[in-house]
Amino acid sequence: MGNRRQQKRVPLASVALLGRPDGEGPKDMQTFTADISMSGIGLYSTAVWELDRDVSIDLTFMGTETLITEHLEGRIIYANRIGAIYFLGVQFQEEVSAVKQPGLYERLQRILSYY
User: What would the pLDDT profile of 2-11 be if each residue is shown by its tens digit?
Assistant: First the structure.
């Protein structure tokens, strides 16, 4: 089985507030980032989330001098239980953009330049 990922995933120390745009199911659950790419993110959650459900993500991470929060929309494409927590794979609706998520875009470009 080959690797389906189109882009390199890199670590990013951040907290993600995961919500449901439709208001159903878990609401505004704090999760932690495992890794991120320009087109998706891996998250650790204490609550189970259904596959193929749309989610909103408010991702907060440390910028150069201050905390930065960026908003993204995506769909859960992977969910696996690991002990008492769940690992979630979320594919973004649109790739991270210099226009829509400038702080995150800059941070990812900086991290990717080391890999």
Answer: 445 578 899 9
